[in-house]
Amino acid sequence: MRDDIHTTGLPALCASCEARHRGICGALTAEQLTLLAKASSKRKAEEGSELIGDAENVESYANVLSGVVKLTKMLSDGRQQIVGLQFAPDFVGRPFRTESTLAAEAATDVELCSFPRATVERMMAEQPDLEHRMLEQTLKELDQARDWMVTLGRKTAAEKVASFILMIARNIDPTMKPGQRAVTFDLPLSRAEIADFLGLTIETVSRQFTRLRSEGVIRIEHNRRVILDDIRKLAASAGN
């Protein structure tokens, strides 16, 4: 836990939370965090657990503290399409919506800090900085969606797979230091889910993983653990 001026007066629930420094809670004062903490609770969800269903009444929101959340949309024919991934300290939910438009599932074991919808919306009305932070979060997600459209529409299969791995590498660890080159992580999606997310076949995804490994861009252990000795090589393979 950080022991500095930024933790002075904070409730223990918030002072020990690294996600607070980059999440929406960073817009709140110590007094406001104390009020929010009284209505908040930390919880863990196992991989595969549904956090909220599509078209479900929204009663609470959450900050991702660790792990990866998978967002999906149900198609008219009953199939599910993966439309996004969320990492710490992303905000799960849409303020001022009473019904969800996407389903959220724990792609890995996750830890969440949950708080009632009514509490957050009341604080947004009282605290302009919080509403501003929520707008920034929404615009960030919009930018990411547009960037992903470029990836899916213009990049080659090799660049798509490298871009996916790069996204995970840059976001999966909230304590990752700027400029850090070496990264190790477990893939939060199966090969089939990656193929679904990228609009590729499973065979194509597997071939591109093999190519990245043979070129020394990545190393793979136990099928899902990815080791990057230099993230810059992966960025180059992604066309960045």
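The record above closes out task 2.4. Task 2.5 opens with a second protein, given below.
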Amino acid sequence: MSSPSRAMDTTPQLTGLLQLPALALMLLVAAPAPAAANEEEAALATQLANPIANLISVPFQGNYDGNIGPEEDGEKLFVNFQPVIPFTLNQDWNLISRTILPITWQDSVFPGAGTQFGFGNTRQSLFFSPSTPSHGILWGAGPIFLVPTHTEELLGLDTWGVGPTAVGLWQGKGWTVGILANQIWSVAGDQDEEINAAYLQPFISYTTPNAWTFAVNSESTYDWDRDTWSVPINVVVSKLVKVGGKVPVSIFGGVRYWVDAPEDIGPEGWGARFGFTLLLPRNRS
């Protein structure tokens, strides 16, 4: 664990991030439970399980990992700001913009690293997708871009990247099963920090008639140059509620377990996931 002096220096930043799960829990407890199953909320929760749904969503996804580094005394807490915005191209096709910008606090991720707090690098995906599923099957494909937006040296590489990304899924009777994948190669920036990495996210979830969703996924990354895997398994429970009876919000929490990670660099054991997602349904045109 961190030394007392280091923990004292970063307490205000760390405390602010740790307040997010408490806020989400208070919102969930304060939300009135429906007397009967709410079909509209269940439909929204099912759409939210689809990464390329015709739905504007703004997730704030918190993640905590520990046991990082050769001495296993490092820790990391980051919140991903992940807006997903669909655009109608024509009657048959949509373009879905999916952005991931991490806000990170980390300490002692390797000996002598100290503490960092700030933005990480941004991943911007664009999916061209049919507007209507076929037999419950929906897919999307397009480019992904890596943009060096980090504000601290150890929070990202000084490298621009690009590659292909795709997602395919099936939905039916409350179930969502699919996989999202991408590959990024560095194309500009620091040549000593080249990137050649694949990302695989298989996922499965079930949404109940009263808008509870139980989900399991993996967010695995493979570094082709170093021949190393990073494989966390996430188990998350979420509930869709309407704050003030009007604004749909999905509140979620769960655990993660690291099956594999680069030796002396990646985290080990258990971690946590928590946060909330604001939703704005969008009429098809």
